[in-house]
Design a protein that fits this description.
mainly alpha; Arc Repressor Mutant, subunit A; 2 domains; DNA-binding
DNA sequence: CATAATATTGAACAGTGTTCAATATTAATT
DNA sequence: AATTAATATTGAACACTGTTCAATATTATG
């Protein structure tokens, strides 16, 4: 039996999240389970439930981790970019989704039974604000800006999720990148 | 015990698909299970597996039904529409997704372990061709046409899935319809 | 009418999230 | 230091999932 002094509560959550991402990287969400995580931690399901309360509670934390990494990857290069920030953002979006495909799809394949906690919604908002602020360099009208941000956000998401999921017959020249180029060219070029 | 003369094989599949859609309409994919379908049919799981082979096999058939209904809804009004067919198509897309939300999300929430059968891919292609052909009225270059169809297809999909899923803060004026309008206006207006 | 063929059943299996009494470990108190 | 209170950990149990398959019931065939 694992002694309770082996890991503090915080170390325990850290360990759980690490092992969770490990499993997701290896097998995706379908290979993910509470018992699988517990086993890799060297603990049992009970302990996991004592820490996270429920399966949903655990995955929300895992997804928050993924969102944090994703946001960091987007924001990092954005500050260094001077011209055409919007295009950089879209590329970086696609790049992360492709590089960490299993983590990225987990964000959307997971359908919680309960509604997301506040700290999770905050991370979604933060993600969205990135596009909104990048667009702000182009437009001044805040209403129009928000609407355009939503359209671009949703469109880029749609392109990534269908293209990377192999549901758009994207081969050769018509890669996901090309589609994003086409979207930005025509949508923003006209606006 | 149900006699095997009660329903022919075809009647059996029909019954199963009907009950499946019934459950999905009521509870969504999370309330859907092989046993639940069998129970409503008045049979047992074994019979269901004898007919459909596997859970994935069943759901692919259910989803094909949903795609058929969706395609019919899109195509029906499209032929009657004269001007701005593209806008009609996008509206009809959104309308079906909203009117039969549980059926629509089932199409995307279901993640098969096996790759889809040919007759399923055909239905996806047929769906995509609708946009492609509608666009053809605008452009002549087939390469450009295909690319634009993909971009629009993915973008509209992204808008619907995020907006209807409540992940875009779409309230008041910024409804999903408004976003679609904005997309078509700017993307096609420039092209 | 006997036999071959097959449709249907229901129990069994391994897996899932979830709960919770029993136990082991630590902290607090005397 | 010994006892007691508090809590972390366990593992069995529950209801559910998809899946399999021998046994049985039903129908078709010779």
């Amino acid at each position: 039996m694992a002694r309770r002094s082996d890991h503090s509560r915080q170390e325990l959550t850290e360990l759980a999240l690490d092992k969770s991402l490990e499993i997701i990287d290896e097998k995706g969400l379908s290979g993910f389970s509470a018992r699988a995580v517990a086993e890799r931690m060297g603990y049992t399901v009970g302990t996991l439930y004592n820490v996270f309360g429920s399966y949903d509670g655990l995955i929300f934390r895992v997804n928050a981790r993924i969102l944090d990494a994703w946001h960091a990857a987007l924001a990092a290069g954005l500050h260094k970019t001077k011209k055409d920030k919007m295009r950089y953002l879209a590329y970086a979006y696609l790049d992360f989704a492709g590089r960490h495909y299993n983590r990225w799809t987990t964000l959307f394949e997971f359908h919680a039974k309960s509604s997301p906690p506040d700290w999770y919604r905050d991370r979604i908002d933060r993600h969205f604000r990135l596009i909104e602020e990048t667009l702000l360099a182009r437009t001044q009208d805040p209403h129009q800006n928000r609407r355009r941000a939503k359209v671009l956000w949703a469109s880029i998401h749609g392109i990534c999720i269908l293209a990377l999921g192999g549901k758009l017959d994207v081969v050769g020249s018509d890669s996901a990148k090309t589609l994003i180029d086409d979207l930005l060219e025509n949508y923003l070029g006209a606006a």
